[in-house]
Design a protein that fits this description.
The protein has 302 residues and is α+β, with helices and mostly antiparallel strands. The protein contains 7 helices and 18 strands. It has 3 domains: 114 residues, Roll (SH3 type barrels), CATH 2.30.30; 122 residues, no CATH class; 38 residues. A 6-stranded antiparallel beta sheet has the order 5-8-7-6-4-9.
Length: 302
Amino acid sequence: MKFFLSILLLCPLLLAAQNKAHRFEKDTLYTSSGFKIYEGQTLQIGKRPNNITGFRFISKLNIDPKSLENNSVIVKELSDYGYSPTGSAKIDVKAAIVFRDGSTGFVTFDLAFDHAIGTRLPGTTSELILPKEYLISKEQAIAMHKPAFENDTLFTSCGFKIYKGQYLEIGQTTGFAGRFRYLNILTPVDHGILEKERVLVLDISGFGFTLQGNGFAYIAVELARKNKRPKGLEMHLSFDQAIENIPGIPSELVVPDGFRGILKKDPLTELERIENLYHSKIITKAELDAATKKLAAQEKEL
């Protein structure tokens, strides 16, 4: 009971702290990263997530998204600072643009600025590109227990490294119907063939984050089994979750003990994450109850 009461008491404080992370004053937008957006400023726009869809966090464009991609604009007006229906902080932007054919014009769009900026971690891409001084270095990321991707090496939040030529030890499936929860195998195979096996890392790509803030990467591996030909597999790996899993559940990606349990997790955030897993039907009611009890026991020890 004390655990849940403390969570309820923390909620208003957390919301208040979140609301102070960004602000709009005197025609200047202060983003959560410290980067400022103001009239007359040049903004560098990055790439769309793919060549088919538009931007994820730059919406209501009055021009073709392809014209804005990898282009720059000069801010002429900022207005309607607030929140989108999904809760993302946003602002309306009117800006001057030079099109690729040399002609000029104006572009208007809604900018979910913090999401467009992204995590600023090494190896990630963003729709709004910031100057180098606002980015987080690999060394800073490691010190903050944040993931990074640099020189073909993936640094997970707990410090465990994944790189080409490395052998990864896979644990047992912990999802429904004998499937992994956080090792999303893209190759059509039975997940059971990977249980308690070792795989050779061939390639790492597509490092990024979900809207929930979970780090992931696309990893190509080779599974070598006794008296059988090596099998190539591709997986979408939510690496931090695969290492830590939920309280009381074994890891799907097995790492040395020194890398587990070192991340200090906020009880409120962790409880919310576990409840989201349950509502998404990723974990069962029994697993939700067990994880909640373990979190409550950990909170009492603090």
